[in-house]
Amino acid sequence: MFTVFATTAAGVEDLAAEEAQEILDRKARIDGPGRIALNINRIEDAVRLLYLARLVKRVMLKLTEADLDGTQKDLKKIYNAVYSSDFTSFLTSSDSFAVRSKRVGAHDYTSIDVAHVVGQAVIDRILKEKNYKQRVNLDEPDVIFRSYVLHDRFYFALDLTGDTSLERRGYRTEVIHPAPLSPILAASMLRVVGWDGTKNLLDPMCGLGTICIEAACMARNIPAAYLRKKTLQVVRRPPFPELDPESIFNELDSKIKHYEKPLITGSDIKEKYVESAKRHAKIIMVGDAINFKARRLEDYVEDQQGSFELIVSNPPFGLRVGHPQRVEVVYRALFRVARHLLTSNGKLCIITPHVKLVKSLSEKENLPITHERQVKYGNLNVKVFICEK
Ligand SMILES: C[S@@+](CC[C@H](N)C(=O)[O-])C[C@H]1O[C@@H](n2cnc3c(N)ncnc32)[C@H](O)[C@@H]1O
How far is CA 50 from each of CA 2, 15, 125, 188, rounded to the nearest angstrom? Predict the structure, then answer.
């Protein structure tokens, strides 16, 4: 049995656990802020999760964990926990390795100290057990271990993902937008709002198209890591020689439903973003699944009433440029448009730091809030709201 340890965005752990459970048909649990865990019998299941999960940043095999108290004594505890854990079968004498270390909370040591102690424990144990010195290569290691010191807990894990988070899907190649949404948050919004691929969906402020593209990939069963196959650590260096990730990918790719024609519309006031969004959609094979156009949000009031069941959007936060009145104008328009465009029981789902404004507009437009959750957007605390007609 293996314990899979996966990271996600803080605030959507329950959704990530639900998704993992659906993918693997096994109970997944929230392991702490931004983390989920589940037990699997077959390593192939970790590969499935890694390839399919839209709400996961990184998938690892947990090797050991320990309690910490924040003092220097922790370093000895960490050394002992790593030294006595079951990692040696993942290394051969020709492999190099690296330890990637992350620390959150107040401790009498740094993440560099932790990486050093973990690396030393790996080297010492291999020397004792196999009688050679394992090579370290921090730039292009064959094997990547991850160590997490998260407040009062230490985790040591074998990385299956690699240095680039699964959040980077590989379709957003044009970095011309100041605030593109994380695909994990986009997929979380779609999950929480009940997107099942059959409803009529609009993002009227689509920027580079992330929400629409994630929605189309969900509708067509396109794996989240479809464009990332070659970069995944599990492919570069399978943890077991008999594991063949590519055959698992092929099996999952055969379930892609290219013929699905979801009803997705994305628009933005800026034509150059819309043109980029179109190209991004093509890269991930959903160019024909989304109706992208340049359009002002305000102009949707001219359309037929009740033409969308879902509006999912990431309106401008207006925090960096600081035009509070301009932001208010856009949010007012968004709620007015939602009131006009949504079918009865239709839902507006938005991600925003403007909690008071959303609460007052939901009352004004009679679109009551039926769901509200705090999520981390980079370092910002923002909320995802669902307002229902
Ligand atoms: C936070 S960004 C959306 C980013 C997008 N989710 C992505 O992943 O690229 C907000 C977008 O709203 C657009 N916008 C602002 N005011 C608008 C308006 N009145 N009508 C349509 N789009 C507008 C901006 O051009 C910007 O691209």
Answer: 15, 16, 29, 16
* Rounded CA separation 218/246 (Å): 21
Looking at the DSSP bridge assignments, the partners of residue 97 are: 136, 143
Angle at 330 (CA atoms; ends 324, 335), nearest 5 degrees: 125
Q: What are the DSSP calls for 204-259, one per residue?
A: TT-TTTHHHHHHHHHHHT--TTGGGGGG-HHHHS-SSTT--HHHHHHHHHTT--TT
Residue of 269, 298, 311, 354 to test ligand 1 pocket, by largest number of atoms within 8 Å of CB: 269
3 state DSSP class of 52:
helix
**β pairing state of 200-203 and 308-313:** parallel
Residue with tokens 């991600």: 351
CA–centroid distance, residue 380 to ligand 1 (Å): 18
The first and second tokens of residue 144, run together, are: 């990547």
Look up the pTM and report it: 0.96
Q: Compute the distance between CA of residue 101 and CA of residue 116 in angstroms, rounded to an integer.
A: 9
CA angle, corner 231, sides to 227 and 237, nearest 5? 135
Tokens describing residue 27: 């109970």
Buried/exposed 337-350: b ≥16 CB within 10 Å, e otherwise: bbbbbbeeebbbbb
Catalogue all structural domains in the chain, each as residue range(s) with its CATH number. 2-159 (3.30.2130.30), 183-224+256-388 (3.40.50.150)
Ligand 1 atom with the shortest distance to the CA of 179: 1
- Tens of pLDDT, residue by residue over 25-47, are 999 999 999 999 999 999 999 99
Centre of ligand 1 from the C-alpha of residue 179, in Å? 9
Span 233-265, pLDDT tens digits: 999 999 999 999 999 999 999 999 999 999 999
Query: What are the tokens at 8?
Result: 């996600």
Q: Which residues contact 162 (CB under 8 A, 6 or more apart)?
A: 144, 231, 232, 233, 236
